[in-house]
Design brief:
Layout lengths: L1 H26 L2 H4 L42 E4 L4 E10 L5 E8 L8 E6 L3 E2 L10 E3 L3 H5 L12 E2 L13
Parallel strand pairs: 1-6, 4-7
Antiparallel strand pairs: 1-2, 2-3, 3-4, 5-6
Length: 173
C-alpha cells in the first residue's frame, strides 16, 4: 500500500512539472527563440515586470552616530560673548525644503515678555555641541537681536543674518 501511495505522488509531481514547463514555453514570445533582427526594438510588453499597486520599495536607511548629529528645537542659543539669546522654537524652510532660518524665542522671563526673532541659519554655529545641555552660538550681538522686529506667522519676515551672509528669498511669480 505504501508503494502505491509513493507511485501516485510521483506521478502527480511529474504531471505537474510537465504542465508547468509547457505553460512556460507557451508564454515565451516567438521572437525569443528566433535570431534577433533589430537591436533597437523595445522589449515586448510581456517581458516588463509588473509590480502590484500596493508594493512599496523598502526605505533607504542611514545610520548617524549619536555624537555626529543633534536636534535643535528647544536648544539654548548664546552669543559669541556668551550672552543668553533665547532658544530655538522653529526652523524655517523654503519651498524646496532647504533650511533658511531659525526662529528664536528671545528675551523675557519664563516666557513672559519674550518675542520671536528670525535669524539666518548661516549665522548659527553648531560646533560646540556635544550633548543636550550644550548651546548653539549665534554670530549676532544681543543688541542686534533686540532691535529686530518680531516674527509673526503667515506675515513677511525679517531675517537677521551675520554680516554679508544673508541671501534674499526670491519672490514667487
Amino acid at each position: 500500500m505504501r508503494t502505491a501511495g509513493w507511485l501516485v505522488l510521483s506521478i502527480a509531481i511529474v504531471a505537474g512539472l510537465t504542465v508547468a514547463v509547457s505553460r512556460a514555453a507557451e508564454e515565451l514570445p516567438a521572437s525569443a527563440n528566433a535570431a534577433p533582427t533589430e537591436t533597437n526594438a523595445p522589449p515586448p510588453a510581456s517581458v516588463v515586470p509588473v509590480t502590484p499597486k500596493d508594493a512599496v520599495p523598502p526605505p533607504s536607511v542611514t545610520i548617524i552616530g549619536a555624537s555626529d548629529a543633534h536636534g535643535v528645537l528647544g536648544r539654548d542659543v548664546r552669543s559669541a560673548a556668551d550672552e543668553d539669546m533665547g532658544r530655538i522654537v522653529d526652523v524655517i524652510v523654503d519651498r524646496e525644503g532647504h533650511v533658511r532660518a531659525a526662529v528664536i524665542d528671545f528675551g523675557g522671563f519664563l516666557g513672559v515678555g519674550s518675542r520671536k526673532i528670525v535669524v539666518d541659519w548661516n549665522a548659527l554655529r553648531f560646533g560646540k555641541i556635544a550633548n543636550k545641555k550644550d548651546s548653539i552660538t549665534l554670530e549676532l550681538t544681543k543688541a542686534q537681536v533686540a532691535a529686530a522686529p518680531e516674527y509673526k506667522e503667515d506675515t513677511p519676515m525679517v531675517v537677521l543674518g551675520a554680516s554679508g551672509s544673508l541671501q534674499p528669498l526670491q519672490a514667487i511669480q
